[in-house]
């Protein structure tokens, strides 16, 4: 059983680290490069495709982290149930829930008339969201690393 708990902690921490890295690379590299495309129509198409693909992967990583850290907490004996597991899984869930923020303006794929300023606004808003998500993910990842280091698992 201790090896199962350690594996859950390791998987949860690793997936949270991957989540943070993907969010950071989206915010720092991928999303800003869309503004260099020559016109609004290709930028819109690539932006929508990137957001859909990234959202699927980010939600999957956050869900794995959330579930495995909660499972590690549930399987731990009473004396070894460290609250950092719950806090870290809560942060992972919060980072994943940022997709559900109302008012996030995604462009519509079927628009024929695309305005460059609208695309730029959507790209900038998405970049800010990914920066915030990366910061929250980094907080959770740091908590997980310190917690694992502290309990020796």
Automatic annotation (TrEMBL):
Query: Which residue ranges run through the membrane?
Result: 16-37, 132-150
Q: Which UniProt keywords apply?
A: Membrane, Transmembrane, Transmembrane helix
GO CC field? mitochondrial outer membrane
Subcellular location(s): the record lists: Membrane
Which Gene Ontology BP terms does the record give? autophagy of mitochondrion; macroautophagy
What InterPro entries would the database entry show? ATG33 (IPR051668)
Topology term for the membrane:
Multi-pass membrane protein
Similarity annotation: Belongs to the ATG33 family.
Quote the protein name from its UniProt record: Uncharacterized protein
- What does the organism's lineage look like at the top? Eukaryota, Fungi, Dikarya, Ascomycota, Pezizomycotina
